[in-house]
Amino acid sequence: MESTQTPGGPARPEAVRHEYRPPAVEHGAVPGGTGSGAPAKGWTRNELAARVARELHNGQYVNLGIGMPTLIPNYIPDGVEVVLHSENGILGVGPYPAEDRVDPDLINAGKETVTVNKGAAFFDSAASFGMIRGGHVDVAVLGAMEVAQNGDLANWMIPGKMVKGMGGAMDLVFGAKKVIVMMEHVDRNGNPKIVERCTLPLTGKGCVDRIITDLAVIDVVTEGGTSRLVLRELAPDVTAEEVAAATGAELFEEDQELSV
């Protein structure tokens, strides 16, 4: 396990949506703390996108879920060439457009305007989901409301709240070769989003491989039919004890359980 930080943090691209441009954040406060005026620990949303982008490798076909994962194209490292897939029918999605490059005919699955890279292709949803179900997507990066210690994922609805539909997540969690969850470690009330068992309707069972939050990188490791959460990396200024305290399930550092 290691702690990593890009000096000064990644530059924020001008094209990032305004709601994902929080003011400059200092490091050093208790995770999930609110209203105290204390600086926050860990990765900001843009720094988190840069960390997740480092998971991607040359030649991969990658699907990015709506929300925070759509920040990732702005941070793909130089020299890494991946093909971004959007389930509404695009291969070759680029970063968000600058104001003078907005094309209302180019949208992703979240109905946001996007750019496309040279050589991009367009096709219908049937072909797009055929690609997913046929196992041709290497990595899916999805947001989540809850992730269980066995890799169960809940990310598509909260009972009683209106939803537009389940989207493509239920296909992606089993069609993609690797599933990475990108999310904040706790919800807006400070409750853990990594739990023993999901209480919200499931998107998929045992489908998550890696969880990357604003506090840490955690793997779901399954051996002999038993799954456990293993801490792999800490965000800046965050301790393993703080991550364990913000996690609603047993967390292991390699083979040693972390106490709260």
SSE succession: EHEEEEHEEEHEEEEEHEE
The beta-strand count equals: 15
Rg over alpha carbons: 18 Å
Give the strand content. Answer: 15-25%
Q: What gap, in angstroms, lies between the N and C termini?
A: 18 Å
Please work out how many helical segments DSSP would assign. Answer: 4
Question: What about the largest sheet?
Answer: 12 strands, mixed
Structural class: alpha/beta
How confident overall, as mean pLDDT? 85
Q: Globular, elongated, flat, extended or rod-shaped: what is the shape? A: globular
Q: Detail the poorly predicted runs.
A: 2-7, 9-36
Helix percentage range: 10-25%
Describe this structure in words.
The chain is an alpha/beta fold and 260 residues long. The chain has 4 helices and 15 strands. The strands form 2 sheets. Strands 1, 2, 3, 4, 5, 6, 9, 11, 12, 13, 14 and 15 form a 12-stranded mixed beta sheet that branches. A 3-stranded mixed beta sheet has the order 8-7-10, with no helix packed on it. The longest helix is centred in the N-terminal third of the chain and has 9 residues. The N terminus is likely disordered.
